[in-house]
Structures are given as C-alpha cells and as structure tokens.
Design a protein that fits this description.
By secondary structure, this protein is of the alpha+beta class. 38% of the residues lie in helices and 11% in strands. Strand 1, helix 1 and strand 2 form a beta-alpha-beta unit. The longest helix has 12 residues.
Length: 128
C-alpha cells in the first residue's frame, strides 16, 4: 500500500494517523517532491476508476492560471489533463492510497481510509 501525501495537508496527516493506528504497512510518497510521471498518473486513475478531472484540485492557483475550468472533460482532452497533473502535482487531489488489491482511493475521509485498509492482503496462514 502506498499513500501520496502533502505533509502540509491536514487530511493527509489524518489518513497517516489512521493507517498508523491500524498498524498498516504502507509507503509514504511525498508527491510534490517525488512527482508522479504521466504513466503513474494513468495507472492510478485506472485503479481509482476515475478520470483526471475527477482528481484535479481546480481551486489551486495553477488551475486558475491554466484555465482548467474551461478545459473539455472528454476522451480527447484526457492526455492534456494528465500532462497538467504531472507538470503541476499540487493539482492532484490528496491523499491517494493505492491498495494491495490493485485498486486505489482518494482518502479524504476516515471512511475512505478504512475502505483502503479493508482491501489489504490477508496475512498468509498455513493450513494442514
């Protein structure tokens, strides 16, 4: 399990606290420093079952500068949105947790974090 965070974000800190409280095994990715490439963003979108505009923080200054609110939200514009997210990672909604089962969630609520936790691989046990 990996969690993409901005340490300055209260929702990210809350998600980390809950993961720690539950004893989850996870890796932290400070995505503003370790910026995801376009391919990684595509993979996370697929895991989320969302489109890039669904995880874009349109209130950010960079979104305003790019005029994102005016961009089309269709298949033809998808790559343009992904490129914008890679170029301006602050636009990516956070935190994102990639779960062990191949899915992902935008973990802005305790329920979403618990949903990701419920998708953990069960500890293997040996049976005779």
């Amino acid at each position: 399990m990996e969690i993409w965070i901005n340490p300055a974000c209260s929702k990210c800190r809350s998600a980390i606290s809950l993961l720690d409280a539950e004893g989850a095994d996870y890796t932290v990715r400070r995505y503003l420093e370790d910026v995801p490439a376009e391919d990684e963003i595509r993979e996370v979108l697929e895991r989320l079952g969302l489109e890039p505009w669904d995880i874009t923080r349109t209130q950010e200054a960079a979104a305003e500068e790019l005029g994102l609110k005016e961009w089309p939200r269709d298949a033809g514009a998808r790559e343009r949105w992904i490129a914008a997210l890679a170029a301006h990672p602050k636009l990516i909604q956070r935190p994102v947790i990639t779960a062990d089962d191949g899915t992902a969630v935008v973990a802005r609520t305790e329920e979403a974090v618990r949903d990701a936790l419920s998708r953990r691989e069960p500890h293997s046990s040996t049976s005779l």
